[in-house]
Request: fold
Amino acid sequence: MAKRPPPEPIDHHYDIARLTKVFAITCLISIPTLAWMTWQDYGRDWKHWQKEFIRYDRLRTKAALQAAAAKIDAAKEEQYLTQKREGIRELRHRRAALSKAESGAKRAEGRWYDADQLNRSRKAEMDSARYFFETEQQKDPKSGSTDKARSTYEKLRRLYEQSQVAVQTRQAEWDAAKAEIARLEKTKTDAEEALKKIDEEYDRYQAKLKTLHQNDAFYFVRNAPIADMLAPNLKVQQVQLDGLFNDVNFLKSQRVDRCMTCHYAADKRGFEEKETYPQVLRTHPRLDLFVDSNSPHPYATFGCTSCHGGRDGSSLCAPALTLGDKLALSGMADSGIP
Reply:
């Protein structure tokens, strides 16, 4: 039988009311402290520079988009749009022929698939029979089992050759069916290809601009505290330099460069202007020699600290830089060619 709890008040060695107040005050202090710690850990300097790079890149892309739009020949664009509309009208009139051609193409594709599968199966059987024949021939070239294996192999080889011809025939039928569809859609397809060529540069910049948004909900969620461990677009950029090591207390540790975490534009052309971009976000002054993937010293192989020195694994700007870099950033020295 369960014991009954002792009657109140219970004799404690501490004051319950005072203890509750201590817990409440501790929680009130801990919650903002935890929030401050989370924000300090989340608000890294390199995130600021990556956000700045996205902002500058978005401005450059918008300017390039406007320039591409200005280069589009409006008269030609209207001409091909008219041709496309005419092609759509033609397809409406040829609806029955187009439907018949599409059905024929599907049937031709099915026949080709069946022939191709049979061809693959016969090839496997032929290869197996050839292996068995060659094995028997090595044992005894004049034995009855060798002759039988040769006969089986020759039979399967002829069947395989026939299936190859069948595949080629079915492929030609399928190609003819697709050609008929292309003929019916030619006016519309030609117009679409011409429009695509005219708008190619504009469409490329427009597609890039969609990836540089910083104000949509998805951007904030993927880069939010804690959630940024899943798929952030603001993240440490690093490269492991094979064959390059740091000597630490007589031990060698692999050199891992994280310089481009802040210097995001070092290997990207178009960020050379000193009046427009801060030094952290400028293109390397000698891409023909350094950093660029086509240069003699690409970033993926040599990194940055191989020449500049500094702490390769640091993602904090000040500790990572050498004295010369700090002087250059403060305007006390020219950063020219590294």
